[in-house]
Amino acid sequence: MSLLFQSLSADATEDFDASVPHRRRVSVEEATTLGPVFAAIRSIVDYTTTLPVDFYADGPGGARERTSWPLLAQNINAEMGFGNWLGQLAFGIVTKGNTVGAVTAVDAERRPLMIRWAEFWSGGEDSPWFVDGQLKPEQLVAHVPWIVPTGRKLGLSPIAHFAAMARAGLSAQDYADVGRGGGIPPSHLKNTAKVLNRTQAAQIQRQAAASFASGLPFTSGNDWDLTVQTIPPSHAQFIQTLQMTATQIAAIYGIDPREVGGQAADSQTYSNDESRALNRAHNMRPYLTRMETAVSRWLPRGQYMKFNVDATVRADIKTRTDVIGAQLKDGRLSVNEARALEERPPVTGGEFYNIPRPPTEPVNRTGDAQ
Asked: Strand (E) positions, 262-328?
């Protein structure tokens, strides 16, 4: 078993059908060579890595107040960039179903001041944690799971649980490989002068295959006839298989199939960039919530992290102006808060909120209040 699968539980590795010899196993490395799988991982990791984050603290009356970055985030940002660190967190979740790291520094209250995600790890259920080959006490292990079955601590591995679909996709992908020798042959090389024995035929096959794989033409004498095979309609279903695999993988990851080369339902249409961005943000919410909850758990009490999803939903100028104007008018935003949304500097007096006055009481004809 490869080191990558030391991170999978025993039940998860059973999904690779070791008892069925004719069905190929699928590793994390191999699955990510399948276009739809890599596209799904890239979509989720890129979104997480590039999304702005804010930190808040509980204020008076239950209100939240934006605060400076805690030491944990500052230390991580100085070492590798906080966005990259969040991207690694997302990558572990969407490939192995778990991201595990070592807490390498703590504060006086034993809260993490530095967490480094591990490449190899094992344990976590009923056995001790080994992180990058070192035994770690549970309080010095940071663990963020994906979907956790009842009675378990480790999350399910997406790669392990869609191994059957990955097998189908990889087989279809291999179908078009001229050097792999399966399916129908990419071409038929026929000797028109004499009958070949098995050894001679095999030698010519190897020479022709090497030429085809290199992209160079195959050169022969005047007694050879080359026929390039076309894929008949009955065999063209491998293209449909790739599309079906993409759609199924997108469904497992909860993202738009078109982001991974699949086809969306006819009803799933988006009229503009804003609606597509809103749909993507909606699909990403479960991943973002898991990461927000995990990071907030490691911060001082009363502090928490939030992804700024609104920053990715960019409406057109007129719509954005109308929305911000309405929020200024009813007091939901101050002038400086509105300017910050447009990445403009604050102005003197810009902290003013336009709080509407309460309506005056109606009066009767004599001027006395009713």
From this structure: 303-307
